[in-house]
Structure formats: C-alpha cells, structure tokens
C-alpha cells in the first residue's frame, strides 16, 4: 500500500462535508478519489469544493474501485450496517459514522463481516479525540482525583435538527445521547449496568408527533458503583452546551464550554461574554480532524483503531435501555436489552 490512503466518501451531507474538508485540506496522507450521494447535486458540489476527481451514481461503484483503500460512511444511520457489510466484503477499511444501526442484529452482522474480512473499522465517536475530554479521562485513569463517585454530563444542542432528520435519526437516545453514552464509558473506563430515564417533549411538539423526545435526564449506575447523569436537550438558546464534572475521593475535574474568544465585557449594568461556539461543527472541529488522522494512521500502520466495532455496539445497547426505561418508567439493566 502507498503512503497515502485513498478514500471513497458515501454521503455528502453535513458530516460528509466536515470529513471531506479534513481529508482534503488537513491530511496530506489521505486523498478522496470518489464521492457518492443519492442527491447527485450534493455530491457534485462537495466534489467541486474539495477537488474530488470522481462522482459516482452509487456506493457500489466506489466499492468496486480497486484504487480505493477505505470508505467513509456518512449517509443516514439506516444505511450504515448494509454498507459496512458490503465494504468489508469488498476488502475496504471502514470509517463509519455513529450509530452503526438501530438494532443489535444488524450491528452483529456488520461486525461479523468486518471480522471475517480482516479490515479495520472505526466508529465516529469524535469526542474521544477532544482535548478537554482526553484530559478528563487522564484525570480518572491516573487517579488524579482519587476514586470517582459521581459524574455529570451536560449535552444540549443549540436547536433541533429538521423534523425530516429526526424521523430518520432513530430518536434522541440513538442519535444524540449516543455520544454521551460513549463519553460515559470512555471517561470512566468502565461499563454501565443499569439506566433510568425521565424524558419528555418540551422543545417542539412536532418532535413528539414524530414519535421522539427532545429533553431527557438519564441516571446510570456503573459496575464500579459510580453514579452518573446525562442531561440532554435539543434546544439551549445560548448555544451548544457541553460540560462534564466528575467527583472523586481526592477532588474533582470539570470542563466547561468553549468560546470563540476570551473577552469578558464589563459595564455599569452587567459582566458578560460572547456565547459558546454554536454547534458541533465549530466546537468539535479539532476532534473531527484528529479522529480521521488516527484512523488513517491505523490503516497505514495496520494497527487497531481507537474506536472499535464493540465501542460502536455498547452505546446502542445503552440507548435501547434508556428508551425501554422511559417506555416502562422503571430502571432497566443493560442485559435486558443485550440479546
Ligand atoms: N459524529 C458526529 O458528531 C455526527 C454529526 C452529524 C451526523 N452524524 C451522523 O452522520 C450520519 C449523517 O448525518 P448528517 O447530519 O450528515 O445527515 P445529512 O442528512 O446532512 O446527510 C446525509 C447525506 O446522505 C445522503 N444519502 C442518503 N441515503 C444515501 C445512500 N443510500 N447513499 C449515499 N448517500 C445517501 C443524503 O442525500 C445526504 O446528502 C448520521 O448517521 C448521523 O448520525 C454524526
């Protein structure tokens, strides 16, 4: 294999564009050879923006191209599992956006295909590559704050996505909380065994009509005894709210929001600052670049990726448990949904 990894991109929407820009403008060890999208105009526009030489009519054409080493799956979640199976069978390494699928049977089939083909798979849990979260993980792992007892994750979006996206997203827990479930496991270095969810529709009744929720507080107990909460809302009017606090026997660690500047304005009536970075494209820019750098490096060096298929599966189990807890209004042990 050459020293440059050749990519095919499937899906030229919001996240496809973020990843295409990283590979094109920030990673000399990567090159996108082809892009496809069922919306050919979206694919054409992204190809023009990033200088991608080929736009194909289907993912199959990308998978049949022997010059392509790896694929980026950035199409809607409902397409991921089947594309993983096809890509693995075609011998391509795979970077797939979260979540792998909405149900465990499809995830297991996809992971089995990856295992059988011996290709590399990384799931798009980009927050693991964010400098703030990495620092929190280090504090827990090194014992810097002693033995952890409580963890609070606040994760609120500035505004809900369009209803059309909500309908195909799998719902709040599988689409949005999935990142926080991954963070909970990553930061604690342990597994959750029980989840209790209180949730509702408080942002937009249309979200409720689409069968989804927009506000949730999730209470989790880890195997090691740590008690944790995830606080989610689809709408925080002041912007993207991403904070974590962990209390341990020797202290605590917390991370606050990221701001476009450090300026504090004081006048006769108030002291204030500008709003936090508005959404994931701005707040997590560096982590998106670092996750692809890490994936490309893993492929180049033939090493395991840092976010594996199992790391993609377990947060889906957590999301299914969270929904079951809400539906049945009781704590749910993960083994109840982990068939
Ligand atoms: N890691 C993150 O922070 C993050 C952020 C946003 C989205 N995502 C995930 O990325 C995926 C896409 O989300 P998005 O926000 O970019 O959605 P989007 O709707 O903006 O883009 C999806 C694109 O895929 C195209 N598409 C649909 N079916 C296709 C198919 N069969 N083959 C090829 N292209 C197809 C659509 O036309 C669209 O252009 C979802 O799974 C989502 O959960 C992850």
- Uncertain stretches of 5 or more adjacent residues: none
User: Helices and strands: which structural class?
Assistant: alpha/beta
Heteromolecules bound: nicotinamide-adenine-dinucleotide
The overall pLDDT, averaged over residues, is 97
CATH class of the largest domain: Alpha Beta
Q: What's the arrangement of strands in the largest beta sheet?
A: 12-11-7-10-9-8-15
Provide the β-strand percentage band. 15-25%
Order of helices and strands: EHEHEHEHEHEHEHHHEHEEEEEEHHHE
Q: CATH topology of the largest domain, what is it called? A: Dihydrodipicolinate Reductase, domain 2
Determine the CATH superfamily of the largest domain: Dihydrodipicolinate Reductase, domain 2
Shape: globular
Number of DSSP helical runs: 13
Q: What proportion of the residues is helical, as a percent range?
A: 25-40%
Which sheet architecture does the biggest sheet show?
7 strands, mixed
Rounded to an integer, what's the Rg over CA atoms? 20 Å
Please describe what this structure looks like.
The chain has about 350 residues and is an alpha/beta fold. It folds into 2 domains: about 5-120, 3-Layer(aba) Sandwich (Rossmann fold); about 130-285 and about 315-335, Dihydrodipicolinate Reductase, domain 2, CATH 3.30.360. About 40% of the residues lie in helices and about 25% in strands. It has 13 helices and 15 strands. The chain has helices at about 15-25, 40-50, 60-65, 80-90, 105-115, 130-140, 165-170, 170-175, 175-190, 205-210, 280-285, 285-300, 310-330; strands at about 5-10, 30-35, 55, 70-75, 95, 120-125, 150-155, 190-200, 215-220, 225-235, 240-250, 250-255, 265, 270-275, 330-335. The strands form 3 sheets. It has a 7-stranded mixed β-sheet. Strands 3-2-1-4-5-6 form a 6-stranded parallel β-sheet, sandwiched between helices. Strand 1, helix 1 and strand 2 form a beta-alpha-beta unit. Helix 9 crosses helix 13 (about 310-330). The longest helix is centred in the C-terminal third of the chain and has 20 residues, at about 310-330. The radius of gyration is 20 Å and the shape is globular. The mean pLDDT is about 95. Nicotinamide-adenine-dinucleotide (NAD) binds near residues 10, 74, 97 and 98.
